[in-house]
Every structure is written in C-alpha cells, then in structure tokens.
C-alpha cells in the first residue's frame, strides 16, 4: 500500500532538490546553498526550511514555522471561499394567459434575482387545450425577453419540453 499523500508545502527533508535559494526568517536573501546545509541553519534558528516556490530554478525556500505557515494558508483559503459568490438558478413559473398585474409582479421578482447575480429559469406551463396555442406561450417569452433586455441576456432560448416551455436568463 502506498504511503499517504502529504498536502501543503514540502519542508526539511521532504525537499527533493540538491540546492535551494534560501531566504531567512527576516525576509533577507541568503543565497543558493545545499539543502542539507540550509536545513541545519534553519534548525539553529529554531525554524523549518519550507519550500515556498518549488517551480523556480533553484527552488526558493524560507526559514518558517511549518505549522504556522499551514495555518495562515488555510485561513487565507477560507477567507477567499467566504467572499466568493455562487450563482444560483431561480425559477419563475408562468401560464400563457397570465394577467398584466401578475406579469408585472413576476418581472419585479426576475429583476431582483438578476440584480443579485442569479440566473433565472422561466417556466411556462401549458394545461389541457392550451397546448394547441403554443404561439401564445412563445409570444409571452418574447415579451419577457424584451423587458429584460437591458439587465439580462438569454442563456437558453425558449424550447418546448413536454407540456412546458423553458427559457434561461443570466445577468449581463
């Protein structure tokens, strides 16, 4: 069985290159030296040799406390995750023979969703004999499209799926 994979930066004896560029605990460049020698110097100061830029040639290492470094990196990642906005899909359901006031209420809700940065899925449900008048549904979705033209763009054009017509709008 393979050993468990360690996450995070390599430090001390896990550093694989023979020579490294070393930066001390005060942020000053000491220069390029052998990895073993750098590890000994870090131990004298009571720190670890941590690889901060493994892709450089030679890799850049710093005198740091590994636990503290990992903790800071985790805190930074959590803060970034907290501030990012996920885009939800909100659904608005209508009928082909919707009244003007009801339509206005739905449009206000749609504008609110779009302003919040969410996508809006407009679902138009047909019942019974309304299936014979699909052009009314298409006209209604075209009206929605025109009313939302300034704030939203069409992501999925109106299409019929069974007894309902769907359209997806997303913020511009």
TrEMBL record:
Gene3D superfamilies tied to this protein: Translation initiation factor 3 (IF-3), C-terminal domain (3.30.110.10), Translation initiation factor 3 (IF-3), N-terminal domain (3.10.20.80)
Single GO BP term: ribosome disassembly
Main subcellular localisation: cytoplasm
Pfam families per the UniProt record, alphabetical: IF3_C, IF3_N
Alphabetized InterPro entries for the sequence: T_IF-3_C_sf, T_IF-3_N_sf, Translation_initiation_fac_3, Translation_initiation_fac_3_C, Translation_initiation_fac_3_N
Keywords from the named record: Cytoplasm, Initiation factor, Protein biosynthesis
Annotated Gene Ontology cellular component terms: cytosol; membrane
Subcellular location: Cytoplasm
Molecular function GO labels: ribosome binding; translation initiation factor activity
Residue ranges of every copy of the Translation initiation factor 3 N-terminal domain listed in the record: 15-79
Record-linked HAMAP family: IF_3
UniProt family annotation: Belongs to the IF-3 family.
UniProt subunit comment: Monomer.
PANTHER family documented for this protein: TRANSLATION INITIATION FACTOR IF-3 (PTHR10938), TRANSLATION INITIATION FACTOR IF-3, MITOCHONDRIAL (PTHR10938:SF0)
Function description: IF-3 binds to the 30S ribosomal subunit and shifts the equilibrium between 70S ribosomes and their 50S and 30S subunits in favor of the free subunits, thus enhancing the availability of 30S subunits on which protein synthesis initiation begins.
Name of the protein described by the UniProt record: Translation initiation factor IF-3
Species the sequence originates in: Alteraurantiacibacter aestuarii
